[in-house]
Every structure is written in structure tokens, then in C-alpha cells.
Design brief:
It is a single chain. The chain is mainly beta. The protein has 4 domains: 3-164, no CATH class; 172-266, Immunoglobulin-like; 271-365, Immunoglobulin-like; 373-425, no CATH class. It is built from 4 helices and 33 strands. It has helices spanning 78-81, 85-97, 119-126, 154-157; strands at residues 3-11, 14-17, 23-25, 31-33, 37-40, 45-50, 55-59, 63-65, 172-179, 182-184, 188-195, 203-207, 212-215, 221-227, 237-241, 243-248, 253-256, 261-266, 271-278, 281-283, 287-294, 302-306, 311-314, 320-326, 336-340, 342-347, 352-355, 360-365, 373-377, 386-393, 401-404, 410-413, 419-425. The strands form 10 sheets. The chain has a 4-stranded antiparallel beta sheet with strand order 4-1-6-7, with no helix packed on it. A 4-stranded antiparallel beta sheet has the order 3-2-5-8. A 4-stranded mixed beta sheet has the order 14-11-9-17, with no helix packed on it. A hairpin with a 4-residue loop joins β6 and β7 (55-59).
Length: 438
């Protein structure tokens, strides 16, 4: 095929159809060949530079076969290419009444060697300019303004036959996602999917959080409600959601806005309770385990200091921690108790930590520890001298105690002391020989 023209400019939808009926969209710089058919949609504009250097412009809905007769240097029979007066009258009436021009004009008025694809349009355009006085010479196309005929037939206006139809516009429809700007923890976030054209059929919008929005046929939006997360930790949170997929709607070209819909979630000061417990009962010298327990996991590592000075550690993500203490072990009769409270805490990252101030108490049972009591006396005295008797404990007396001796004497040991004494005067007689006191 011989090149006949080059595309200079294109606006709107314009195509070139080859002998096989195949269409290709026109762009500036494309080369057109003899025999190809220019096909445009309404409101299209095409500017061609012909092989001989002349220009050819198409404005509006046209279908023109590119032949050498369109070149400015081509010879044509002016008489044959002209419209008779009666033809002009019929043409004007057809334009006013909307009648198909092909039903009014004879083929000779449509231009020589025209095809049925609307070549009559080009011929009409060419004769709208005055002819030059030189016989058999056609004016340059650079000076021709083509006429856009409104009276074109319905079949012509809606395109070609099914096998060679002009592609329809791929209109863009945009869909975007928005959400409630700010909520309190546990509040409701409303996600809204919005179209800029109504859905032709029911459509579904799948969100990145797994929620589904339904948009009814004929509507431009749909919503779904989601409960905001609610935790016990200090500091706000946020929810960020995007559209992951859609189905339905019957759109030519649906463009999904990937911008996330973000909601700020503010704290609502949820309470977290902290309590202290201890082993109920132990024997003297046994182990008491103190346990600090939360009703929400710690957001960060935290410490709990007890009134006894012991420290319990609770790891981040845990709800409890423990510390072991050895129970007191004494020699005194009767059980004992150990008691502790929570003195202070740090860490955990809780919005509102409520500390239970109740004591954790442990009963400590006796384990029958021995305490020894011994008696001693002055080793030697002269008759009439003083014997000192001493009662000795190996553990301090818890309370005041008395020790009665076999001679009737009584020794008192004060509370907290380990010993006591009593003095006794020995006998003094006239008999020879030593004696002893026991």
C-alpha cells in the first residue's frame, strides 16, 4: 500500500480501517495508506497532512476513504463534482428535517469513486468552497473548512456493522473509601464506599479488615459499621483500612482509590485491677509465696513493691508475678501470722490502674522448736555463806516466767531475758565436817 497521509493532530475517537475491516486508533505521527477508511465519532477532530503537502481536516462524525482524488493536485471534473441547484435545495431540506442525506443525493453528488462508507460527506465538504477559475483544478484543502452534517442517519451515527463497530468509550468510574474520623475505644467506625456514578447492578466492596460493603443497584454508596478496638493501655490507637477488591456494578472502567481510610481511636480510661495474694498457711520457717495479679495483661514490664520491701516483677504481656519469702521461725508457743500489702507500682502502661489495698495474710504454725532451761549454783561457800542459784534459757523468754527449785526457792526470768537468780544462805552449825546443798 502507498502512504497517502500523516496524522498531525487528533482529538476524540478516530480510527483507520483497513481492507480486512480491522480498526486501529489514530495518534499524531501515524501514517495512513491509500484505500484505508477514516472513521470518527461525534465531536472528533482529525488533521491530516497529505502526501502532496496539503492539509485535510475532518471535524465531527465522518467516514472517508483515502484516495488520490483527495490530494490537492488531483484533477477532477468540476461539472461532475458540483451540486445542481435542485440538489442544493433538496440537501437543505434534508438537513432541516433530519432525513438521511443518502436518500436525497444521487451518487454523482456524493463524489467520484465513492464507497458506501460516507464518502459523500467529503464530496460535500469539497464543494462548499468556490472553485478556482482554472479549469479542472480543485482548491487546496488547507483552505477548506469541512461541514459537520447533523442530518446523518441513525445507523451511520451509531457506528458501523457489528463486525467493524467503533469501540465504545471506556468511561471511568471512581470508587473511594472513607471512615469516621475519630471515635472512643469501643465506639463505632462507619466505613463508606462511594462511587461517582450509580452502580448498574448490585456490587460488593471487600475491605482489608475483612468487612464487606454492599452498594445497591442505582446507588452511589454503601456503608458498614465496625466496633473500634478497646484496650486497657495508655495512648491512642488508629485503624487504617483500604479497598482490597470489588465485584458487580457493571462498570466499563472502575478505578479503585487505594488511599487508606484512617480513624483515630481515643482512650476511654479502662480500669485494670491489681490484687495481692499469699500462701494461706505455712509452718514456721516455711516459704510464703506472694502473688500480684492483673485482670489485663501488662502492656510493658512492671514492678510491684510490697510493704515488706519485697518486689514482684510482672513481664510485658503477663498478668501476674510472684516473690517467695521465708516465714519466721521462733521457739514460742502459739501460731503467728505474716501480712503484706502493695506499697507502689511502676510500668505496665495502663490507662487506669486500680490497686487493691487489702492485706495478704499467712498463718504460720508452730513447729515445736526446743528451748532448754538449766540450773546452776555457786560451787563452794563457807557455812553461813550465800549460794546463788541461776536458771538459764537458750532462748529469751517470750513472757515473764518463774522457775521453782526443789528447796522451795523461786527464780524469776523477765520477758526477753534468758536467765534469773535467787540467793540462799547456807546453814551454820557446830559440828565438824563439810556439808552440801542440792
Amino acid at each position: 500500500m502507498n502512504p497517502i497521509a500523516t496524522v498531525v493532530a487528533v482529538t476524540g475517537k478516530a480510527f483507520a480501517r483497513n481492507e480486512l475491516g480491522e480498526l486501529r486508533a489514530l495518534s499524531p505521527g501515524d501514517v495512513l495508506y491509500e484505500g484505508e477508511v477514516i472513521v470518527t465519532e461525534d465531536n472528533a477532530f482529525v488533521d491530516l497532512k497529505m502526501a502532496d503537502g496539503s492539509s485535510l481536516i475532518f471535524d465531527g462524525l465522518v467516514e472517508v476513504t483515502l484516495t488520490n482524488e483527495l490530494l490537492a493536485s488531483s484533477d477532477v471534473n468540476v461539472q461532475e463534482e458540483s451540486l445542481e441547484d435542485e440538489d442544493v435545495t433538496a440537501l437543505l431540506e434534508a438537513l432541516e428535517s433530519g432525513i438521511d442525506l443518502n436518500e436525497v443525493l444521487e451518487e454523482t453528488a456524493a463524489g467520484g469513486s465513492a464507497t458506501s462508507e460516507g464518502h459523500s460527506f467529503v464530496r460535500l465538504a469539497r464543494i462548499t468552497e468556490d472553485l478556482t477559475p482554472f479549469e479542472n483544478e480543485v482548491p487546496q484543502f488547507a483552505d477548506i473548512e469541512l461541514v459537520n452534517l447533523d442530518g446523518i442517519s441513525e445507523d451511520r451515527a451509531t457506528g458501523l456493522d457489528a463486525g467493524n463497530s467503533i469501540p465504545q468509550d471506556s468511561d471511568v468510574t471512581n470508587i473511594s473509601l472513607s471512615a469516621t474520623d475519630t471515635v472512643i475505644e469501643g465506639g463505632t467506625i462507619t466505613y463508606t464506599a462511594t462511587l461517582d456514578n450509580p452502580a448498574d447492578t448490585v456490587m460488593t466492596v471487600i475491605l482489608s479488615n475483612g468487612e464487606v460493603i454492599i452498594i445497591a443497584a442505582g446507588d452511589t454508596s454503601g456503608t458498614v459499621d465496625v466496633v473500634a478496638s478497646d484496650d486497657a493501655f495508655i495512648g491512642g490507637d488508629s485503624a487504617s483500612v483500604t479497598i482490597t477488591s470489588t465485584s458487580g456494578g457493571n462498570f466499563d472502567n472502575l478505578v479503585v482509590d487505594a488511599t487508606p481510610a484512617i480513624t483515630t481511636i481515643n482512650d476511654d480510661a479502662d480500669e485494670t485491677n491489681l490484687t495481692l495474694s499469699a500462701t494461706d498457711t505455712v509452718s514456721e520457717g516455711g516459704t510464703i509465696t506472694y502473688t500480684a495479679t492483673l485482670d489485663n495483661p501488662a502492656g510493658t514490664a512492671m514492678t510491684v513493691t510490697l510493704s515488706s520491701g519485697q518486689v514482684i516483677s510482672i513481664a510485658a504481656g503477663a498478668i501476674s508475678g510472684t516473690v517467695d519469702v521465708v516465714a519466721s521461725d521462733d521457739v514460742y508457743a502459739g501460731g503467728d501470722t505474716a501480712s503484706a500489702t502493695i506499697a507502689s507500682t511502676s510500668g505496665g502502661n495502663f490507662e487506669n490502674l486500680v490497686v487493691d489495698n487489702a492485706s495478704a495474710s499467712t498463718t504460720i504454725n508452730d513447729d515445736a522448736d526446743e528451748s532448754n532451761l538449766t540450773l546452776s549454783a555457786t560451787d563452794t561457800v563457807s557455812e553461813g555463806g550465800t549460794i546463788t542459784y541461776t536458771a538459764m534459757l537458750d532462748n529469751p523468754a517470750d513472757t515473764a516466767m518463774t522457775v521453782t527449785l526443789s528447796n522451795g526457792e523461786v527464780i524469776n526470768i523477765a520477758a526477753g531475758d534468758t536467765s534469773g537468780t535467787v540467793d540462799v544462805v547456807t546453814n551454820n552449825n557446830v559440828y565438824a565436817g563439810d556439808s552440801s546443798a542440792s
